[in-house]
Amino acid sequence: MIGHSHGPVSASGRHRRPLLLAFLLTLTVLVAEAVVGIITGSLALLSDAAHMLTDAVGIGMALAAAQLAMRPSNARHRTFGWYRLEILAALANAVLLLGVAVYVLVEAVRRFGSPEDVDGVPVLIVATIGLAANVVSLRLLRGGSEESLNVRGAYLEVIADTLGSVGAVVAGIVLITTDWPYVDPIVGLAIGLFIVPRTLRLGAQALRILVQAAPPSMDLEAMAGRLEAIEGVVDVHDLHVWTLTSDMEVATAHVMVGGSADTHGVLDQARSLLADEYGIDHATLQVEPDDHEGCDEHGW
Question: pTM here?
Answer without folding.
Answer: 0.69
